[in-house]
Amino acid sequence: MLADYRSGVIKQQLIHRLLRVRRRRPELFARAGYEPLDVMGWRREHIVAFMRRFERYCLLVAVPRLCAAGVNEDRPMVSKEFWGDTAIACANDDVACTFSDLFTHRTYQGGAQGLPARTLFSEWPVAVLMSESYP
Q: What predicted TM-score, i.e. pTM, was given to this entire model?
């Protein structure tokens, strides 16, 4: 999909997967609160991140912004080095949080240092993560 990103296939997949989550967990979209997340580090202005949380379910979304100059023409992503020490604060009551990416299926463990942008955006241009408790 990354090679053919100009066709809109990534946007279609993003919509499709989020609609599947909404069908399985409608409360995350209808009743959950919107929590903007803090971004730390050198490129903190280059990420918009938020969480929707309802009971034991969390949906975390992080999207790069203002980085078009660093995008590779073959893929709609910037290099890992671009992000440096930038990380997304993991807003969870117990500080530690574990999420699975809806696209890459990678698991991320957050903590006091947050979720590193260089890892979140290493394989896919956006991060859409569900808490581990998501069935």
A: 0.85
- Rounded Cα distance between 6 and 74, Å, is 10
Residue pair 86/39 in contact by the 8 Å Cβ criterion: yes
3-state DSSP call for residue 82?
helix
What is the pLDDT tens value at each position of the chain, 135 positions in all? Answer: 676 777 788 889 889 999 999 999 999 999 998 899 999 999 999 999 999 988 888 899 999 999 887 777 777 788 888 999 999 997 555 545 789 999 889 998 877 788 999 999 998 889 999 986 544
Distance CA 60, CA 53 (A): 9
Residue 68: other Cβ atoms inside 10 A: 9
